[in-house]
Amino acid sequence: MAVNTYMPQQFPKVTLSEAEEETQLLTEKVYASALKEEDNKDALSMFTVPEDCPIGLQQAKEHELLKELAEQRSEQSTKRKKSLKMIRSHSMLLQMPVNADCSRPVAVTPYLSPSSTCSSVPENCPDYQRVTISGDYCAGITVEDYEHSAKSLLKALLIREKYSKLAYHRFCRTTAQFLRSAENMTWREEDEVLPDMCPCPTGGEDPYSTHNIPEDLNYELKMKDGIVYVYDNAEALRENQPHDLPYPDFETFAVDFSHVLAMIADGPTKTYCHRRLNFLSSKFYLHEMLNEIAELKELKCVPHRDFYNVRKVDTHIHAAACMSQKHLLTFIQETYKADANRVVLENAGQKITLQQVFHSLNKDPYDLTVDSLDVHAGRHTFHRFDKFNSKYNPVGASELREIFLKTDNLLDGEYFARIIKEVSHDLEESKYQHAEPRLSIYGRSPGEWHSLSKWFIQHKVHSPNMRWIIQVPRIYDIFKAKKLVPNFAKMLENIFLPLFEASVNPQNHKEIHVFLKYVSGFDSVDDESKHSDHMFSFRSPKPEQWTADENPPYSYYIFHMYANIMVLNNLRKERGLSTFQLRPHCGEAGSITHLVSGFLTSDNISHGLNLKKSPVLQYLYYLAQIPIAMSPLSNNSLFLEYSKNPLLEFLHKGLCVSLSTDDPMQFHYTKVNGKPRFTRDGLVK
């Protein structure tokens, strides 16, 4: 689809104004505070809120009352309040279900909420009872605070929209319509930017076919400042004239990051967002009280659809743990029965059979149980990511993980492919269930992509009920300690340069080209609670200069992943190829700054637990309708007790949340299609 939306081809270099310098100083204070809090927090009391001091609450109320009284005596404030009341009354008229023509654009101010720009109720909508709120639109806070908060939120949404469009990520249509109205512009459907997905093969079409591959362009490629640049030819490379694509600027991103980070510490904005979130939650409970019976009636009238035959997509599941522990146990026992004498490992030139592996472990496969397999996480893994990672090793043996759960081993990942195909077969039989398993690319060497693509095609792993996500572990420090990479830029080059080469010259990289058709996006994974002393800012060193053994901070990783995905998506869009989304683990633990990075760069995120800590970010995620794949069973074994999980709270407030399994092998006792679901009363397994 042709996109007419104007997108800047180059980011302007940053020159900070005096106000921006002040914002940067505030940001550094907030960042330092977040790091200090991360160091000093009591991990086991996460999200427990201490009782507010009654004296402090009384003083705050008196202060607000004095501000209100001062406003009442101010003629200018009175006029502004009257203007806001008129806007509120006008928006209420728009919401009334009368036969009004709502197709005409309505001029609104930036201070009008997106929900109030909505028009009449559609004819096919159930006859629910609806509530409108009259009176002072900004009741509860002063006009100055209200205007200040609204402008800050508007600016943050415009920043996210910019980064989403540049990377061909989705941006909520309702929010986009509101932003255009706030700018006195008309929203057009053709301006909407969406990711391009390769359609699933139909009929007898071969999903691994290497026919009809686009011709090679023979562009030149070079990584500069951690971002791959594309040049039309060698001469353009010598003259430093890159191909006409948007190339992000690190300093510009750092300044945008600072603006959003400063917002979350701003008092008036926090107060306004907290009140709005409480209002949304109350609105849900009121709707539930008024319309629960009507909703149940509508639900029962839907033909051929119930919980079991509606489409369900598991958007957060790791391939190495996509099976249940019982499934893995049965697979190991059946494989041993058939292949006990097969060579499965090689150690120091010595070939080792599967039988010898079990003998060295003093284990008999037929005596194994799900308990002795020991892959299930529990309370002993709470806040112990190291112990959690060890659960990927059946019976605690890394040899069995190497044999059964790896794509690059002596068997070329045959057993791993077989068990994944069994999982996909279950999904296909259930008909209505789909999944997006994550496979790892580490960045140790550029040959990883070829190896993974070869595994995918050789073992015919494609399923119509599966798409694939590539997860990149944040383990630069491990590779640097082992002298596998000289700097952070080399790790980025190993991850992204093969993708650019396959996009520019697909005839020379046919296997990678075929595999990428079924890849949805990229994930960034590791323990978010790991501390980094480096403060992310526009002063951070370039990736080529990051030669220290220390791991870069989360935001540094996320920006450079986003930057390369953005350039790659624009290049692939030119060629009519599929694009990718950035969908990182974000907000599971660690600093609140991770969620700021996710807000700016990600199409959607996984976990998002720390949104509970920040009303401003939580409200921004609501306004932008950023999808959040939540995994309460996973969180219960790692970072947050089940009873404290904010999933239902987020759902009631209107955030875009979904349930995901994360690691069925470690958290579930049933098959993947026995996923948890939620009811009005809470979560059930």
UniProtKB/TrEMBL annotation:
Coiled coil: none annotated. InterPro entries: A/AMP_deam_AS, AMPD, Metal_Hydrolase. One of its GO terms (biological process) is AMP metabolic process. It is an enzyme of class 3 (hydrolase). GO terms for cellular component: cytosol. Gene3D superfamilies: 4.10.800.20, Metal-dependent hydrolases. Its EC number is 3.5.4.6. It holds the Pfam family AMP_deaminase. Its cofactor is Zn(2+). GO terms for molecular function: AMP deaminase activity; metal ion binding. Pathway: Purine metabolism; IMP biosynthesis via salvage pathway; IMP from AMP: step 1/1. It catalyses: AMP + H2O + H(+) = IMP + NH4(+). Keywords: Hydrolase, Metal-binding, Nucleotide metabolism, Zinc. Belongs to the metallo-dependent hydrolases superfamily. Adenosine and AMP deaminases family. This is AMP deaminase. It comes from Gasterosteus aculeatus aculeatus (three-spined stickleback).
